[in-house]
Amino acid sequence: MSGVTDEPGTIDEDPAKRASGNSSATDTRISFKRWLVKTSRNPYVTFTSLIQPIIFFVLMAEVLGAIAGGAVTQSVQSDVTYVTYLTPAIIIQSALAAAAVSGIGLVDDMETGMFDKTLISPMNRGAMFVGKALSEVVRIAAQTGIILGLGYLLLLLKSGTTAEQYLQTGVFGVLGIFTVTVIFGGVFMAYSNIVALVTRDREATVMIANLLTFPLLFISSAFLPLEVLPGWIQAVAVANPITYGVDAIRALMLGQDVMSVIEITSLGGLWNTVVPATVVLLGFNVVLGGIAIRLLKRASRAEVQ
Asked: Exposed/middle/buried for 66, CB within 10 Å: 0-12, 13-18, 19+?
């Protein structure tokens, strides 16, 4: 094997770097295709990830919409319906649910031996993670499109709302929403893979993911304006990436500044929300993604040795 030196019993620090393989782009494409095919061949995952947001959206709109409409009107503006206010929260909740279980596939590979087989190949370790993340971006993007369409359909049936009233920033807003959702998903994909690499256990990965992610939804501006929530929730929401994801998408839908945790007025309009929120989410990606890749490289060295 390429990682073994001429001296008996010694092994190079990083065999993958010494091996002559594909470029990082090619390795990323191979990893992306593999995970995409694997997901598409599991009808349960595909069905659940596409149907679950629809059920959650309809139930939340009917249950919370009846009591939260007044708070939304006072916080945002009088003509914003709760369905419009809720749509960014459901988009983020769906991306969160998909991204938070990203590590399960990695644990499955460890348990079946596929992880070891990949490690003895010259594939770039970072490309392994990036390709896997990109395959999950496809699922998150599909969910986002479905939720945006469902929100408009609900308003159209209830009040005859036009597309311009529903999404006031048009095509630019749609592109921005997909971009923010993908950046947000990267945060929790990295988190899930960190948990998977540390625990190396499927049940532990699922339990830890659910333990943190769902409470975080309610400690944010997702379902109600922060102004009407207790002070301690407002304090925790400042460090919660869900707050920034929801606020950025809400600003792109309403075309106005809705940032609830950072006061910035120099950029003007919706940019006072979108720019700082995106910067914060990118920061989370850099930190957590760097930790995930570092753990993956450490695991690969340990497994090869």
From this structure: exposed
Residues 32, 34, 35, 40, CA torsion sign: positive
Task: Measure the CA angle with vertex 53, ends 108 and 270; round to 5°.
Answer: 110
| Helix (H) or strand (E) segment spanning residue 26 | helix 24-40
| Spatial contact of 85 and 91, defined as CB atoms under 8 Å apart | no
DSSP assignment of 242-300 equals: HHHHHHHHHHHHHTS---SS----SS-TTHHHHHHHHHHHHHHHHHHHHHHHHHHHHHH
**Angle, alpha carbons 227-233-236 (nearest 5°):** 120
pTM: 0.80
User: How many CA atoms, within 13 angstroms, populate the side-chain half-sphere of residue 116?
Assistant: 8
Residue 63 is predicted with a pLDDT of: 80
Nearest to 206 by CA among 90, 106, 57: 106
Task: Give residue-wise pLDDT tens across range 3-41.
Answer: 444 444 444 444 444 454 677 788 888 888 888 887 777
- What pLDDT score does 301 carry? 67
Tokens of 141: 């993007």
Q: Which residues contact 8 (CB under 8 A, 6 or more apart)?
A: none
State the Cα–Cα distance between residues 245 and 222, nearest whole angstrom.
9
Nearest to 144 by CA among 188, 87, 101: 87
- Enumerate residue ranges in the chain where pLDDT < 70: 1-21, 45-46, 69-71, 75-78, 300-305
